[in-house]
Amino acid sequence: MIKLTLVRHGITVLNSTGRWQGHTDEPLSAEGIQQALKLRRVLNPEDYDSIVSSDLQRAYHTAELALPNTPIQADPRLRELHFGVMEGRTLEENQQHPSYLPWKTDPFGHKPEGGESFEDLLERALDWLSEIPEDSSVLAFSHNGFIRALVAHLIGIPKKAHEPMLLPFPLNTWNTGVTLLQKRQDLWVLEKLNDTGHLLEPVSL
Q: Phi, psi (5° rounding) for residue 37?
């Protein structure tokens, strides 16, 4: 059995302003730092055989803050989708770009100028996944598009665009959301999706 825990990075200024990040190496905002620190409530490094992160600083810094003094391997295969010329722009701005409509219609078969398709992203995600040994527990810090695409593939959601947003919806994750999958024989089971309970403040009873 493989136990795979996926964590989205903390929030950034570009997240807060609705701008697409992709491979843009944006740091965590002050709020994102606090979100990452709260992951300590639910993540214990001793529970995992290996811990890996996207090499982009918003993900890697989230991992460092959540698991201080813990070895973390950086792997560029865990990066967000590369949006090419659409990075740093809002949805409304991108809707005016000629790359947007073909990609929105078929996000697997088309890629924005200078970027990659979801098929490209999924290929590198599965390449990374293939190296995980059986009977291991892995914790990975990554990005919204990466997590959604990988989870959708593993649980069998068809490859197509889902309105009102792009593939692989209706799946979605919030900043520092925790997702858990387990592989039992040849079947992947989604145990938990986008758990953000660690962000809630304790309530006095």
A: -60, -35
68-125 pLDDT, tens digit each:
999 999 999 999 999 999 999 999 999 999 989 999 888 899 999 999 999 999 999 9
* d(C-alpha 195, C-alpha 174), whole Å: 9
**3-class state of residue 189 by DSSP:** strand
pLDDT at 157 exceeding the cut of 70 = yes
Instruction: Put the strands of the sheet holding 2-8 in their side by side order.
Output: 73-74, 50-53, 136-142, 2-8, 178-184, 187-195
Q: What are the tokens at 146?
A: 């990466």
C-alpha neighbours within 13 Å on the C-beta side of residue 89: 16
**Which active-site residues does the annotation give?**
9, 80
